[in-house]
Structures are given as structure tokens and as C-alpha cells.
Amino acid sequence: MKYKSDNRIILTLDAGGTNFDFAAVRGGEAFSGGIRLPAEADSLEGMLKMIIRGFEEVMKQAEAKPSAISFCFPGPADYENGIIGDLENLPLFRGGVPLKSMLEEHFGIPVFINNDGDLFTYGEAIAGLLPEVNKALKNAGSQKAYKNLLGVTFGTGFGAGIVRQGKLFTGDNSAGAEINRMRNKLYPSTSTEDSVSIRGIRRVFAREAGLSLDDTPGPEAIFNIGMENVEENAEAAIIAYKEFAEVAGNTLADAITLIDGLIVIGGGLAGAWPLFLPGLMEEMNCSFREISGDKLPRLEISAYNLQDQAGFNNFLKDTSLYIQVPFSNKQINYDPVKKLGVGISRLGTSQAVAVGAYAYALNELSCL
Question: What 3-state class would DSSP assign to 3?
């Protein structure tokens, strides 16, 4: 990978609702100790000065001038112009804050801002699931190669990003892949994020276990209960992840019809895939019942679980055949089976975001 041998330094920031983590990145990996500052201030001015201070301190650690700043920041935002909108988790940002212009004026270097779903997907497209799958297909003797990737992050919220033909797709309003606003299959009056999130897991577990939300454990504990590492309330945990899987699978089936590529899953809940991924795949591969009474496959494409070895092997299997050209002696190769694969992040979410932020900055710098 070209970015791994690049010696340019890019300053990054992982902006969460609790902490801001600053780092200096070279070759796609942080090489300094980094700086963590609490994501709190009494005023917008104080918040912005804190962001400047974080970048200044991590620049001192780098001991060299960086080529750019590249980082993820919550939306809504106009990412192309680096203007941050009205944020739920960071309420001091209101009315449009030109964060990119402020930082460029202060540091005198280019600044690039995206959301975490975009950068996660870009990192997995460059050095994660996408190249791994294409290498496996090549080793299996297949001529197939995938160029499109839908990345989703399951955690506090439900984020996503799209890489199309090797390029990050953000849309005309910096709102591409905001699939968290799709309709919730099980609770149609609300969004899919109400179920595909930590709060969704905890809410259903509390309901099934007869607990108050205050007494409900976090998603990792619920996962352990569901895996029968803890005996009590195992059925409640299984139901919580089952609902999560059904809503997520329905949303991903809708989204992938517009993208037609692979799907990679990251975020804080990705490690619970043994409980939700089989159900998610079942939902994606289910059938509609048409008004006539006939069944219609949910997707035109067959979805394969890449975390399951048998599923991965079937995905790699050559299903092509030779068909006759009409009025000719010639035959051509044709694969009647359309396939998509769904897998868990190969880099880990944080590393994928770092790789995505670094590579995106290098690519943008080459265009300046």
C-alpha cells in the first residue's frame, strides 16, 4: 500500500461525545503518544480553543510540520466546506461553525473533515475487507473483483459510508449514506437507529427481562448473557439482538440495492456479531409475499456471511458457465449467480478510520 511508505505527517482527531482524541499519523498509523481532552466547555469559544490546543500539543509531539489535518467530526455538516451544523452530542455547535476555515487560518495547512462512517468505509476499502475479498477471489481463480463498498458502524448510533469505484461518495449535501434515517421495520413510526444502536439493545433487553433502564447492563454484558457466559436472562439477551438483527438486515437490504457491492460492519457493537449476524443474513435473504401470493426474493443478489467459513467458501465458489451465442459456434462465460458478501471490519474501527483519514488527506493533497 502506497500510504504505508508515505512519510508525510497528518494530524487527526476522533471527536466523540465524551472525549476528543488527537494523534499524529504517518504511514496510516499513529506514531506519537496522542492527546485526549474532554469534549466539554462552557462556550463555543472555549470548545474551539480546546480543539486548537489539542492539535497544537500533538503537533509538538510530532516534532515536524504536518502536511494536513484530516479527521472525522459528527454531523450534520457540510463536510466539503468544513462547516459543522447543529449537533446533538455537542450542543455548543449551533447555526453553522466554519471549523475547516478556522483551522486552516490558524495552522496554515489544508484541513479535511468527514464523518466517521465515511472514513471507516474508506479505510476498509483501501486496506481492509474489500482488498481481502478480492485477493481471496483471485486466489480461488475467479475473474470477479468488487469495486463498491457499503460500510456501517453499529454503536451509540448507526453510521454508514459508501465507497464507489474506489472513491468516497458523500452526496451533494454531505448526507450520503445517512441510512440511520430509514424507517424502522418493527416500529414504523421511528427510525432504524432506534433499534440499531446501543439504546435499542438495552431497551429490548430491559423489556424482556422486566428491568428498568437504570438497572439494565451495557451491550457487552448483554452479549455475554446471550452467549450463556452468564446464565440469567439469556433469552432476553437473544431477543434483544434478534430485534437488532431484523431491523439492521432490513435496512441493509434496502441500502445495498442502490450500491451493489460488499458490506463491512464496524463500531462498538461489531464484536457481538455471533448473536446478530446470522439473523441479519436471514433477513437480507428472506422473501417478499406478493399480492398475488407468490414469493419474491428480498434481494436480486444472494447475500453471504463472510464470517462463516462455509459461507465464505460458497461466496468464492465459481458458479459461472458457458452459454451459446445464438446463430454461432461461439460460447461465452456467464455467471447467473449475483453475490454480495457481509463481513466484520478487518482493521478494527479505529484503525480503519485512521487509515481512511490519512489516505483521504494524501489523495486530496495530490489534487491541490
Answer: helix
State the pairing for strand pair 167-169/158-164.
Answer: antiparallel
Q: How far apart are CA 141 and CA 361, in angstroms?
A: 35
Pairing, β 97-98 against β 83-84: antiparallel
Range in 213-217, 254-258, 311-315, 346-350 with the lowest mean pLDDT? 346-350
Q: For residues 118 and 185, give the distance between their C-alpha atoms in angstroms, rounded to a whole number.
A: 25
Q: Name the grid cell of 285.
A: 435473504
Domain architecture of the chain: domains with CATH: 2-114 (3.30.420.40), 129-346 (3.30.420.40)
Q: Could you tell me if 55 and 34 are in contact, meaning their C-beta atoms sit under 8 angstroms apart? A: no
Which three cell numbers, joined as nine digits, stand for 323?
Answer: 452459454
- For residue 82, with 0-12 CB atoms within 10 Å meaning exposed, 13-18 middle and 19 or more buried, which class applies? buried
pLDDT digit string (tens) for 262-272? 999 999 999 99
> What is the SS3 assignment for 25?
strand
Q: What is the pLDDT of residues 35-48, one digit of tens each?
A: 899 888 899 999 99
pTM of the model: 0.92
Name the strands in the sheet holding 167-169, side by side, starting at the edge strand that comes first in the sequence.
Answer: 167-169, 158-164, 149-154, 262-266, 339-344, 302-305
User: Do residues 252 and 192 make contact, with C-beta atoms less than 8 angstroms apart?
Assistant: no
123, 356 in Cβ contact below 8 A? yes
Looking at the DSSP assignment, which residues form a beta bridge with residue 146? none
Asked whether the beta carbons of 332 and 323 are under 8 A apart, the reply is yes
Predicted confidence at residue 170, as pLDDT, reads: 87
- pLDDT at residue 358 in the model: 92
Cα(59)–Cα(57) distance, integer angstroms: 5
